[in-house]
Amino acid sequence: MPDESFSQERAGARSPWLIDTHELGRRPGSSRELRLDITVEEPLGVPDVIIVPKGSAITLDLLLESVVEGVLVTGTASARTTGQCSRCLDPIADEVEVDVTELYAYPDSTTDETTEEDEVSRVVDDRIDLEPVIRDAIVLALPLVPLCSEDCAGLCSGCGVKWADLEPGHGHETIDPRWAALVERLEDTSGEKSNGSDR
Ligand SMILES: [Zn+2]
Ligand SMILES: [Zn+2]
């Protein structure tokens, strides 16, 4: 006879993010650890900036606890990220880790009766769906302006080469047109002065 208490495979047939909490038995105090790698089907994040790439894994290290109102999920989720430095455009490979604290309300609990479903997650048919919670947490934790290093100097605006690859003292003769006009005027003024004093 199959072990009914460990029915994650049954849930997994639908979505790996759907976790069966049946074995917690709605007994406050009972708990279960959940360590799971879930393969990313759709990349998370902003393309060409930073993403958790398709085919990589999101690693869950969670504790599922039965509390009076529902199932409390705490722990961490972590994933590899790939992206592009927003200053020098070098590829970046990094990691993201988020803390997770989420209550899934039991049906007919006070929380279930007094909150909307978009406010507090729900236990549905003994299952909880980790996907929206984990996805949102990871996307929010991704840097808006990813950098290869905190002090990345970026690119020379004159030639587009990374400052890190340029000789010390690198520069360009070209001057911004607005400055060029100003420099010309200054030169005129100083020229007049010197001419005047020579006379
Ligand atoms: Zn950089
Ligand atoms: Zn340059």
Please, how many domains? 2
Number of helices: 4
Mean pLDDT: 88
Q: Write down how many β-strands occur, each being a DSSP E stretch of 2 or more residues.
A: 9
Largest sheet: 7 strands, mixed
> What fraction of residues sit in β-strands?
25-35%
Low-confidence stretches: 1-12, 193-199
- Which distinct ligands sit in these coordinates? zinc ion
SSE string:
HEEEEEEEHEEHH
First-residue to last-residue Cα separation: 113 Å
Coarse shape = elongated
Assembly classification: single chain
Radius of gyration: 29 Å
Q: Roughly what percent helix?
A: 10-25%
Structural class: alpha+beta
InterPro entries: YceD (IPR003772)
Protein name: YceD family protein
Describe this structure in words.
With 199 residues, the protein is α+β, with helices and mostly antiparallel strands. It contains four helices and nine strands, in the order H-E-E-E-E-E-E-E-H-E-E-H-H. It has helices spanning 8-12, 110-114, 131-141, 177-198; strands spanning 18-20, 31-39, 44-46, 50-52, 57-66, 70-84, 91-105, 121-122, 127-129. The strands form two sheets. Strands 2, 3, 4, 5, 6, 7 and 8 form a seven-stranded mixed β-sheet that branches. It has a two-stranded antiparallel ribbon with strand order 1-9. The model is unreliable at 1-12 and 193-199 (pLDDT under 50). The site of one zinc ion (ZN) has 7 residues, from loops.
